[in-house]
Amino acid sequence: MNAIVATKITRSMGATIGYFASGLVAIALCVWLCKVMARGTISTGIALMPGLVGLVLVGLAFVAAGTGACPACGAEVGGLSTTDNDGVHCEKCRAYLEGKNGELQKTDESRVAATPIFATSLPEKFGFPAVCCVCGAPETRREKVSLTTKDASSALTESTLGVSRTTKTSVEVPHCAQHKGGAMLAGTAPNTRIRFRSYPYLRAFCQQNGTTPG
Ligand SMILES: [Zn+2]
Ligand SMILES: [Zn+2]
Fold it and tell me: Which pTM value belongs to this model?
């Protein structure tokens, strides 16, 4: 029998205080900027920006300041919600973790999630295991998934010339007749990442292409 080992997530005081304090600093900066520079629409917009960052940081103090021991290897996993987590990844042993109500356990190795949450990097040269990326049945068709990202270096040309360079990445992912939407692309070229709904398919992809999960 394989017992489900779950660990408890605790609130990290260090992370909570860290997020909260930097949030307050950003909000204070916003208040100060509003006083000294907000005269027109643009300057008010700029002056308000640190305030938004500050609110996000204060929010993170509440929702992402959990920490827990990886149930697989015992390493500390940070940035957790203190309540429900899914698709969380242990940096040390590369296991996927999930859990509800402040508990953390290893994701079932055969799990197929409702959305693509199991990720890895997309190498320049790669191949897909020739089975449905959702259920593992023989593939009957390929589904095209694309990602268009703005090149980081184009920000300047965009503001000066009004044009931006984009990179479009497309891949054709094997599916069976019953399934669709089993994969998606994320990230920014050239650091493109691919996500699958199926944990077994992610592991097969990683093994075939020499990438690591997470
Ligand atoms: Zn681990
Ligand atoms: Zn299928």
Answer: 0.77
**Is pLDDT of 2 > 50?**
no
Ligand 2 centroid to 138 CA: how many Å? Answer: 8
AA identity, residue 63: V
CA of 133 to the centre of ligand 2 (A): 7
Distance 107 CA to ligand 1 centre (A): 11
Does residue 162 have a pLDDT over 80?
A: no
Residue 172 three-state SS:
strand
Has residue 19 been placed in a domain?
Answer: yes
Residues 78 and 130 in one domain: no
Q: How far apart are CA 184 and CA 24, in angstroms?
A: 37
User: Domain span at residue 64?
Assistant: 6-106
Average pLDDT over residues 153-173: 71
Residues 64 and 141 reside in one and the same domain: no
Given this model, what pLDDT does residue 45 score?
Answer: 85
- Ligand in nearest proximity to the CA of 197: 2
